[in-house]
């Protein structure tokens, strides 16, 4: 199986769009023979040795492969090589974060892969790093349930033939299909079926999405902007904790649910569309349609949360908001508690594909201590709700934006790999006019353009992101947990 670490480094090398790279590797990582062999599997020819040896390799290079020249000084080459190549430095701690570098540099590729997938929030000492290495050496990968694709395909087809599709059941079926096929030969088949389902979902969105913005919240919220109204109507006399995990897709919730305590009531609701944090998480904490001029951040989020509940008659000491740092002290008087976890979204954006994200999600569940947090909230008589602002999608690169296409796309910080919002409508119209092949792939909404299929504004072959209207981004978990 290819090394996940080397796959990610290789993708970064290839993103520079140069056939020849001059690389300094002062920590010695790139000089390892086993590492050089792994790069060769990725179509990258890494050359160390004398200047004469590198010159020969340069002259006889295979243009179908990326050539990497290793040196202590990537400027110490003759002018013709420098003009035809790109120089950079590589440090292993750019990829394997939070460990004592001298302790990891000579570890096996298998251990390095495990450390890469388990980035540390706080840098470990030498002794802590060695302890973690030893733990990873003895920890197996843990096989997921094997997917019966024929059964999955038949069940999904059955659901999609109903005149009224139950998208909750479809989401749950898709989540299990993804979770049990990641890293297997069936994964591409599963994603193909999901994209077929997405075509029907886009028809539903065109027909029904605007109506959900003003839908009833009495029995359940249908969209993130109705969550607070639902909580206020149904749980006036209860202590309520709302946990928002940024970027939690339904298949990731399936992983989390296996460890959560309590009794669950599971629903699937809509994120705001386009599925960007600035709009969708704002809609959660505002309890209403989001404003375009809102500046995303924990300070403003806290203000929205406090404003909503103070308008419902609660005192300041009864309202609490936490962002990343969770404070479970003195909860006796707290009646409305918001907890936001941001780092899973960071993991998502650092992932090349769902195989990366699976391992990072498993690590996040452990390191975030969210299970312990939920247990403590239940012990303190809270009704606990878990949701997210948007899901995510393993997308394909269409192409990166050209320089002139980026002009005017920073309105409210609104450009992402799946979503653009121009400052003027004529700019968005001009973009589509010049790229007519995108018409069937995007939604145009005033000055905004966002993908509804699995493409992205990127040159990467594969990436995990959000910001569009694909069902994997829009259909998200809304979970009630109680002790009852």
Q: How would you describe what is shown here?
A:
- The protein is an alpha/beta fold and 484 residues long.
- Among the domains are: 1-90, no CATH class; 96-140, no CATH class; 149-212, no CATH class; 394-465, no CATH class.
- It is built from 20 helices and 16 strands.
- It has helices at residues 4-15, 33-41, 51-59, 79-83, 101-104, 109-116, 126-138, 149-160, 167-179, 187-212, 227-234, 250-257, 277-286, 298-310, 343-349, 354-368, 370-379, 403-406, 425-434, 471-474; strands at 20-24, 44-47, 66-70, 86-89, 239-245, 263-270, 319-323, 336-341, 382-387, 393-397, 419-421, 442-445, 448-451, 455-456, 463-465, 475-482.
- The strands form four sheets. Strands 6-16-9-5-8-7 form a six-stranded mixed beta sheet, with helices on both faces. The protein has a four-stranded parallel beta sheet with strand order 2-3-1-4.
- A hairpin with a 2-residue loop joins β12 and β13 (448-451).
- α8 runs parallel beside α10 (187-212) and α13 (277-286) packs parallel to α14 (298-310).
- The longest helix is centred in the middle third of the chain and has 26 residues, at 187-212.
- The model is unreliable at 139-144 (pLDDT under 50).
